[in-house]
Amino acid sequence: MKNKNFSLEERIKKYPQLHQRFELLLDIVEDAEAELDKANAAEERVIQELKQMGKEALQHWANEKESQKTRQFREINKQDVIKNKGKKKLLVHNVRRDKHL
Known about the structure:
This protein is mostly helical. It contains three helices and no strands.
């Protein structure tokens, strides 16, 4: 990975939603709200948080890939940029129709 030079905390600060999910997971582990008395309840909460974290991580990944592809496309095609020169003329062909009475 290219970000190995940074700590986990430094890296995760770039992703606020993931940071929040990690905090929620830690709250579950620490039972911060003192509401999880049974393993089944804790397990269910952890699963829910991990599913949501996965969705958010994949959404961020998709957004980043889309941005990369857009930048690449623009870089490759920047010499082919078409400049707008005002309104285009509409070419209309007059079609002659025979009228039948």
